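Action item from last week, closing it out:
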Amino acid sequence: MDIKTCKSVVIERPRQANFREIELAPRQPDSIIAKTVLSGISAGTDMKTWRGEQHPDKLFYPCVPGYENVGVIVEEGSWAPHLKKGDRVMINEVRKFGNVCSAWGGNMHYAIKDKTSAGGNDGMAKIPDNVTDADAVLAYLAGVALKGVYKAPIKDGDRVLVVGAGMVGLGAIQSVKIMFPKATVCCIERHPMRCEVAKLFADHVILADGNEVQQYNDYTNGKRADVILECSGNPAVPGTLHKFLKDGGWSRDSIGGHIHLQGDYPEKLIFDDYHRWFGKNCTISMTCAIYFECKTTILQWMTEGKFKTKGIPFEVWPVGKCAEAYDYFDKKKGDVFKVLFDWSNV
């Protein structure tokens, strides 16, 4: 298959998206080619790119955004010898194009992936027959959340607080409940619609209305969280999380609380006065992106009915309307959970 160009979503400059032809990177001896059928807008990374909030060392314009995309293998290659023509796959990142930047390249009609363009170890995961294309799009950010859950020192019986009920937050809630069934998971979210979605999965949900610290203190009988998973992407949040974290760590056998940063923050993080943190004796970790095994794990949980997507709302737009879709997503803020692009008529 000799393919050198294809249609793609392109962010030409901040707040200007377009659907047009781009040049693909040259094929390599090990290349595999997949055709996109459905993709998504990430409320964090993609909208940050669209608004021009990425740091200049991360990308340049014009760029192809996205990493939540699924499709079908149209040409086999030695880069992924286990995948065969006709297999449905999570495509995800393509880090190299001919005449545009990758940010991170998931919204193109044809994806050429090989060891030079796959973004590290971002392999394609085969989608099980009983997992829909839409579910496989949602699986990517759920896998990002799972990487964070792997890193955070969560134990059965812990009080886990998830801040933010976007797809990363919902993925964190469900992953904790699956891996640590005796843990209790509370979610704090500032958008009422997302609170309603979070109620499908968390043990308790609190609307961030200015009283969330007292509400969480009451919910935990003053014990507060053992582990906090910060998934909001709001740069004003991490610096205040000590208010929700348990006390401890004053002796060798007393472990303090832990905070894991999972958000993609568009601005600097500003922490409260140090003395408010000093007595917490806490630890802080962070993760970015995904392990390949997270994709296959989320897909397997979906096939087994453990990871649920029923009730997670999304809208499907024709990809040719991408300019309108980004503007719509930005204006609606938290009132829209997810926008997916349909590539069937390209």
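Closing note: The longest helix spans residues 133-151.
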